[in-house]
Design goal:
15 helices; Arc Repressor Mutant, subunit A; Four Helix Bundle (Hemerythrin (Met), subunit A); 0% strand
């Protein structure tokens, strides 16, 4: 007997699950491979809701979570989603996918809609629909994330429209005046406009073949064949490091030609960032500022002479950059 009761317990939730699956089945889904006109015809069969009926359904869903009420709210606004989605046809994405993303935004709006605030669901839902579609467009447009800030998203979705307004949609790259105009209209920097225009041109494969002559007489091959690493080569890095170490050794050797006070003042004035002031050093050594300046100048001349002598002994280059005579 106890086994029979246990077996019947899951059946109590079966009608709710069945009604939920039935509600989902009643809502048509846009098929990227199907006919868009057929989908638009199907969603017109769902009636528009009057304000009072919409209010009651929204209250019922908010209070009890009735999926039938939510289903009526969603299906009655599918035409709104389709209308908004049509505004994003120019981005080259399947319109069926765009509509599906808009429907996701609509369902989120229904979940969060508060009918007691006094406005209609369409007014609230349009923001969720647009946000969901725009996120999908940004995700699908490029392998590299395009819009991460509100300003970048605003620029992405308005650049094409503004280029059309200034007759620059098919004129190649924007000229400086056009970039400045668009940046001023959208309140962004000019370099952000130029960067976004390059990103919106689409991804280019590094393995894309080049036509012969496109890159000069040696044209052909793939794009990656013409990429150049502008960072220093390992050989150049070793040479630069050796030269730095050599100059540092010469400097340390030349510093030994100075007495303690000259060395301290020169390091404080020439080898410290930020350099110490004459006023501070004059108090420290109990002399005038002019005296500190004289000691600094004399120490620098002695250091220069010592370094020139050290470089000359190795047939190097003086600090002025001229080769010494053997």
């Amino acid at each position: 007997m106890s086994d029979k009761k246990t077996a019947l317990k899951p059946a109590k939730k079966a009608p709710k699950a069945a009604s939920k699956s039935k509600a989902v089945a009643l809502a048509p889904a846009p098929n990227p491979e199907g006919s868009l006109s057929r989908y638009l015809t199907d969603i017109r069969k769902f009636p528009m809701l009057e304000a009072q009926e919409e209010f009651e359904l929204a209250k019922d869903y908010a209070k009890s979570g009735d999926t039938k009420s939510a289903h009526k709210l969603v299906t009655s606004h599918l035409r709104l989603v389709a209308k908004i989605a049509m505004g994003y046809r120019g981005y080259g994405l399947p319109i069926g996918e765009v509509i599906s993303e808009g429907n996701v935004g609509l369902m989120r709006a229904v979940q969060k809609f508060d009918p007691d605030r006094g406005f209609r669901l369409a007014t609230y839902a349009m923001w969720w629909i647009r946000a969901s579609i725009q996120e999908y467009v940004l995700r699908s447009w490029s392998l590299v994330k395009i819009g991460t800030t509100a300003a970048q998203k605003k620029l992405f979705f308005n650049l094409r429209r503004l280029k059309g307004e200034i007759n620059a949609i098919d004129g190649g790259s924007l000229n400086p005046d056009q970039v400045s105009d668009i940046a001023e209209r959208l309140g962004v920097r000019e370099d952000e406009v130029s960067s976004m225009e390059g990103r919106m041109s689409g991804d280019q494969s590094l393995n894309a073949p080049l036509r012969g002559g496109d890159m000069g007489d040696e044209g052909g091959g793939e794009w990656q064949d013409w990429l150049e690493d502008e960072s220093p080569t390992p050989e150049a890095q070793v040479v630069a490091e050796d030269e730095t170490n050599s100059r540092r050794a010469i400097l340390m050797q030349a510093m030994s030609a100075l007495n303690e006070r000259e060395r301290e003042i020169l390091m404080a004035r020439r080898l410290t960032d930020p350099p110490e002031t004459l006023e501070v050093l004059s108090h420290r050594h109990d002399v005038s500022r002019e005296r500190i300046r004289q000691i600094e100048a004399r120490a620098f001349e002695k250091l220069k002479h010592a370094m020139s002598s050290a470089v000359a002994s190795s047939d190097g280059v003086t600090i002025e950059g001229e080769r010494t005579q053997p």
